[in-house]
């Protein structure tokens, strides 16, 4: 079982338009609600391969009820803490003409101290059954910046590997606990570590410097169509899938997180795990739903993924 933790869940309202035009009236060709929040997106991605997953999260209000029903539809088992207030809604604006998307996120669901402690207790209870943990996303009001550090320390104490996919102060706070994998995208990496990596070579150099300085076991950086960088003590790997015409690219990085955890739970090495992660991430942009993908697309793309060491 892969255990996912999503402190800041969202209901993704995906709005398909032709092209965004400031000041104009734009009509949506389609508007659909999907699962949102990085850890929950990872759980959805795992269900593509019918992987057993358990999702921990905070939910509230009618948006939370809708989100819980979507998780049930995907077959995601969950342990949810219900709070006063309303789960945030993330409006995902998909421009079909340009194959790109933007996020407009409103609202927040504050977490009282007692409920923050409750999630940690439930997390501790579920850890013995987990093969891997994926803890991901921003932190909502009420949670301390050290929350991911606490989750990482608890996973280490239980002997369970953990991937933390976050950025900014919550990620920086988790660094001293040394998650098994720390993952973020290029923009998040630059913001978190005050760097200015623009090219893949820059990202590799800066990333390895951060990993070595912080003694991280692994730093994984996603860079959209440019692929995935894995920065390890033994060197760096770059995995890239063929560029796809995106339908909805939201959740592609979350899919990579999910698939890395799954493949490592099966005993894959880094090259093979990255091959699957790159293929699944690319396949996920072809589906309308956030974090969704079709297994047939993943398997079609697998032979076309290039994984190569960058230090040899």
Description:
With 312 residues, the chain is of the alpha/beta class. The protein has a single domain, classed as Ribokinase (UDP-N-acetylmuramoyl-L-alanine:D-glutamate ligase, 3-Layer(aba) Sandwich). It is built from ten helices and 14 strands. The strands form two sheets. It has a ten-stranded mixed β-sheet with strand order 5-4-1-8-9-10-11-12-13-14, with helices on both faces. Strands 3-2-6-7 form a four-stranded mixed β-sheet. β4 (53-59), α2 (61-74) and β5 (77-82) form a beta-alpha-beta unit. The radius of gyration is 18 Å and the shape is globular.
Key features of this structure:
312 residues, alpha/beta, UDP-N-acetylmuramoyl-L-alanine:D-glutamate ligase, 10 helices
Briefly summarize what is shown.
The chain is an alpha/beta fold and 312 residues long. 37% of the residues lie in helices and 26% in strands. The protein has a single domain (2-309), classed as 3-Layer(aba) Sandwich (UDP-N-acetylmuramoyl-L-alanine:D-glutamate ligase), CATH 3.40.1190.
């Amino acid at each position: 079982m892969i255990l996912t933790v999503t402190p800041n869940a969202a209901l993704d309202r995906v709005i398909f338009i032709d092209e965004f035009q400031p000041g104009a009236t734009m009509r949506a060709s389609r508007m659909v609600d999907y699962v949102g929040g990085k850890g929950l997106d990872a759980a959805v991605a795992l269900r593509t391969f019918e992987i057993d997953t358990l999702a921990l999260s905070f939910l509230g209000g009618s948006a939370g009820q809708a989100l819980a029903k979507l998780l049930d539809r995907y077959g995601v088992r969950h342990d949810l803490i219900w709070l006063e207030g309303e789960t945030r809604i993330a409006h995902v604006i998909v421009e079909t003409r340009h194959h790109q998307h933007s996020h407009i996120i409103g609202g927040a669901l504050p977490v009282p101290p007692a409920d923050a402690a409750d999630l940690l207790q439930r997390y501790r209870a579920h850890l013995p059954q987990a093969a891997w943990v994926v803890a991901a996303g921003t932190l909502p009001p009420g949670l301390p910046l050290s929350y991911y550090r606490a989750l990482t320390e608890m996973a280490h104490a239980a002997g369970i590997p953990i991937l933390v996919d976050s950025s900014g102060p919550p990620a920086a706070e988790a660094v001293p606990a040394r998650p098994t994998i720390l993952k973020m995208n290029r923009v998040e990496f630059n913001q978190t570590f005050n760097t200015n990596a623009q090219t893949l070579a820059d990202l590799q150099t800066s990333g390895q410097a951060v990993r070595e300085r912080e003694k991280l076991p692994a730093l994984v950086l996603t860079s959209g169509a440019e692929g995935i960088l894995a920065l390890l003590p033994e060197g760096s790997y770059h995995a890239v899938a063929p560029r796809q015409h995106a339908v909805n690219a939201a959740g592609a990085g979350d899919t990579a997180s999910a698939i890395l955890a799954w493949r490592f739970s099966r005993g894959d090495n880094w090259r093979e795990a990255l091959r699957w992660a790159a293929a699944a991430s690319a396949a996920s942009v072809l589906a309308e739903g956030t974090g969704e993908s079709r297994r047939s697309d993943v398997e079609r793309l697998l032979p076309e993924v290039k994984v190569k060491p960058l230090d040899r």
